[in-house]
């Protein structure tokens, strides 16, 4: 059998760990980059995956080091580039990756954030993702590289890594809280996001951008679903804003058509929420 070698950058992260897991299950050999391969907190969950002993190799690579990824990607039939700081208090947009958090008005894959708006609004994370994607498309075009971009919503679902990442904290923050923030998110299951990456890679006709986002739901609605799933859990019933306005962000829908055409089936939100909470319990986050 021909060895199928792929690279995953930022492999210890939340989404990337699931991606590595699925790739190993699909029979790929995975060259995984992490910043510190000797940090067991970042690597133990990867080396413990099924197939890792035979087909997972860890490499050290830091985004800001010029050429750090060159030797790792050499010989790979595909590269999944997910490495990027993923938090909202980034002070400048120097960190680039290919994925782009869709946070403002959009209807489908034709939409991009406006970099000027992001800069004026000091939305550094969003700016970094927008510039990263634009840079990637330009570089790919100029160098004849075939790229596909996955644009996920807010990812939730079980954690493989031992630490919390930014997107799941929106759920953890509801547990035991008095109030919920006046915000709407498009939560999507992390396993669906990982699966979309593989579907896009394995389908020769896949091209362009794919939004992988769930239905827009206000945090009050998320809190209600959690209450139905876990009646004894303390969950907020009040909005942090006095007016309890439900219109923090207009509840626009992002089209799922393109990614569904690749064969993705979305995990029901209730299951994603349940698996998230069970994962929090197992890891003793509350
Ligand atoms: N989670 C979401 O809801 C969501 C939604 C849309 C898009 N995204 C994008 O999806 C990707 C993964 O997100 P995630 O939630 O899985 O994030 P995460 O758990 O925070 O993982 C990010 C990974 O990036 C690596 N990284 C950070 N800075 C780096 C640097 N300077 N050089 C090399 N590696 C670096 C980290 O590596 P170390 O472990 O070595 O520190 C970490 O493993 C990111 O590009 C993010 O912007 C995420």
UniProtKB/TrEMBL annotation:
Domain annotation NAD-dependent epimerase/dehydratase: ranges = 6-87, 125-206
- UniProtKB keywords: NADP, Oxidoreductase
Specify one Pfam family: Epimerase
Superkingdom of the source?
A: Eukaryota
Asked if DNA repair is a keyword of the record, the answer is: no
Q: Which CDD domains match?
A: FR_SDR_e
The yes or no answer to whether the keyword Disulfide bond is present is no
A GO MF label: oxidoreductase activity, acting on the CH-OH group of donors, NAD or NADP as acceptor
The record's listing under PANTHER family reads: NAD DEPENDENT EPIMERASE/DEHYDRATASE, NAD(P)-BINDING ROSSMANN-FOLD SUPERFAMILY PROTEIN
| Protein name as catalogued | NAD-dependent epimerase/dehydratase
- Name its species: Corchorus capsularis (Jute)
């Amino acid at each position: 059998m021909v060895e199928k070698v792929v690279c995953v950058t930022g492999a210890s992260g939340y989404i990337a760990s699931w991606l590595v897991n699925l790739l190993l299950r699909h029979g790929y050999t995975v060259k995984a980059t992490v910043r510190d391969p000797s940090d067991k907190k970042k690597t133990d969950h990867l080396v413990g995956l099924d197939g890792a002993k035979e087909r997972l190799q860890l490499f050290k690579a830091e985004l800001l080091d010029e050429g750090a990824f060159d030797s790792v990607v050499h010989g790979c039939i595909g590269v999944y580039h997910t490495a990027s700081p993923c938090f909202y208090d980034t002070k400048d947009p120097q960190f680039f990756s290919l994925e782009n958090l869709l946070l403002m008005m959009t209807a489908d894959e034709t939409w991009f954030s406006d970099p000027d708006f992001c800069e004026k609004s000091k939305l550094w994370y969003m700016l970094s993702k927008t510039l990263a994607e634009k840079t990637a498309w330009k570089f790919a075009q100029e160098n004849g590289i075939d790229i596909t971009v996955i644009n996920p919503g807010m990812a939730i679902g079980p954690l493989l890594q031992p630490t919390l990442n930014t997107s799941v904290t929106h759920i953890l923050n509801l547990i035991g809280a008095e109030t919920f923030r006046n915000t709407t998110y498009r939560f999507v299951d992390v396993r669906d996001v990982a699966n979309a990456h593989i579907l896009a890679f394995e389908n020769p006709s896949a091209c362009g951008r794919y939004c992988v986002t769930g239905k827009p739901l206000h945090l009050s609605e998320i809190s209600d679903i959690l209450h139905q799933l876990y009646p004894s859990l303390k969950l907020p019933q009040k909005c942090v804003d006095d007016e309890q306005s439900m219109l923090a962000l207009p509840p626009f829908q992002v089209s799922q058509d393109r990614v569904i055409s690749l064969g993705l089936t979305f995990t029901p939100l209730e299951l994603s929420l349940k698996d998230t909470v069970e994962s929090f319990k197992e890891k003793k986050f509350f």
